[in-house]
Amino acid sequence: MLPLIEGHKTDTIKAIMIIVFTGGGTGGHFYPIIAITEALSDIVREKRLIAPSLYYLAPNSFDDNALFENGISYVHIPAGKMRRYASVRNITDIFLTFIGTISALITLFRLYPDVVVSKGGYGSVPTVLAARLLRIPIVIHESDAKPGRANLLAAKFAQKIAISFEGAAQYFPEKVRGKIARTGIPIRKDLMRLETEGAQQYLKLETDIPTVLILGGSQGAMKINEIVLSAVERLVSFANIIHQTGRANFKNVEAISKVVLGKNSHGSRYHPIDYLSEVSLQRAAGVANIVVSRAGANSIAEIGLWKRPAILIPIPESVSHDQRTNAYAYAKTGAAIVLDEENLTPHILVSEIERILNDPELAKRMSNSAEGFTDPDAARILATEVLAIALSHES
User: Is 179 a residue whose pLDDT tops 60?
Assistant: First the structure.
């Protein structure tokens, strides 16, 4: 675990601390930052410190409400994306990253933060490069079992490197491994507790049948949506289905489901939802008997905290390098099974869901196997270290 703050007193503060966060444009990069800021607020209040000014530098704000609620100011910093396939945009995006680095340099020079915290992703590269040029301390956090290219680059400059999977350390250069500590994945406070009281009524679920929660990641998953729609008649014959479709896919999924289930007597058991808010997710997870999910590190960490049996469907390796590694690393605990998308059919999905639901002992073993995988203190550990570095830099 990263060291806690020692020896810092409020009289060392000369001015308001400034902490800058940066990351790519997905929930997997964004929401751990929110979790860290929540923990920062708790520590500042407990130690009676002056609250730091918080900024988020990235190509998009992702969730304006979350930024506002946590007192984080957003600054747009453009960034180019390096794709894993041949594309002219790989060339043009080099210039976009260069422009973003100049923009980040100007912003960081103006703010001159005490520390920059990077969650990785293409959106973090300009800010990390600018922080390096200005000699601002950098802390990086890697959620995945196999680190992304942005964090492998940033590791050379980082003062501290936090990882979530023990196996991730082997991918970093040997000379930086002394900076590495496993902290786990920061999870938002609200998602650490499940809401079961009134959840079935809130979500309009039938009682006395199991509930399947299907998550496609923060932006939804078209392939999972297609498989679920093909299997939905069989699924509603034995379970409530809460299906997070992604906002871009919702109208299409809803329209197709109405046609498919139009004359089905159990059609009301299917609940497509574009996006699950924290409250909705708390309640959906609280009543779920099994979770079907993509294998983003955040999703796995949340499922681990919920202690629900899981079926993980990672994004194919050709599209994303990390999810398959994440899925199999978690499956080794016995808490999940992995279905590769390339071989997935509606029949296989339904059969695996039924197999787990119909075997209470198996479901219980899977739930128990999740114990201890996710560290509920990850956000606080990271926030403590970030604050210690900020105080040191400030003094």
Answer: yes
